[in-house]
Specification:
Number of strands: 6
Number of helices: 7
Radius of gyration: 15 Å
Strand content: 15-25%
CATH topology of the largest domain: Arc Repressor Mutant, subunit A
CATH class of the largest domain: Mainly Alpha
Distance between the termini: 38 Å
Number of domains: 2
Low-confidence stretches: none
Length: 166
């Protein structure tokens, strides 16, 4: 069974979905079904149950928004993808709060050639576990904020929240 909880945050509701206490999806939406339908068919087959408290995951979200910017790092995550995508997602989790990287730099940190910046962008676009896999910390080398699945204002808010605490 996939368990979900909807948590209030300063930038809107965050739906978090777990399976066996491992986070499988998270996103800035008040409807966990929006995240659930992005899961693999195998996970969707397990069903969805909205619960009152996911314990450590909910505590980590509250702590993060209260200023403990590393609280999300302690939560185990799992999402589908090729070995390259999984490596990029792991390296994303190593980008510290209050800092940013370019797509090209993310690719280099993952041991991929600089030309793999497109793969880094794709990994961010397909990320199912925001902000635990912090794709908001990746900015284009051309300037600006680039895109963000939940909207650029959310990305800007997260970056400002993290930089104000460092």
């Amino acid at each position: 069974m996939i368990n979900a909880q909807i948590l209030p945050t300063p930038i809107g509701e965050l739906s978090v979905l777990t399976r066996d206490e491992v986070l499988v999806a998270a996103g800035f939406t008040a409807d966990p079904k929006e995240m659930y339908v992005r899961l693999s068919p195998a996970l969707q087959a397990e069903g969805l149950d909205v619960v009152d408290d996911l314990g450590p995951v909910a505590q980590a979200v509250r702590a993060y928004f209260d200023g403990d910017l590393e609280a999300l790092d302690a939560i185990a995550v799992e999402q589908p993808g090729t070995p390259t995508r999984k490596r990029l997602h792991q390296v994303l989790r190593e980008v510290r709060p209050g800092t940013t990287v370019s797509y090209a730099e993310l690719a280099v940190r993952a041991g991929l050639p600089r030309t793999a910046a497109r793969a880094a962008g794709s990994a961010c676009a397909q990320n199912l576990i925001a902000p635990f896999v912090p794709c908001h910390r990746v900015l284009p080398t051309t300037g600006g904020f680039g895109g963000y699945y939940y909207g650029v204002p959310v990305k800007e808010w997260l970056l400002a929240h993290e930089s104000s605490k460092h």
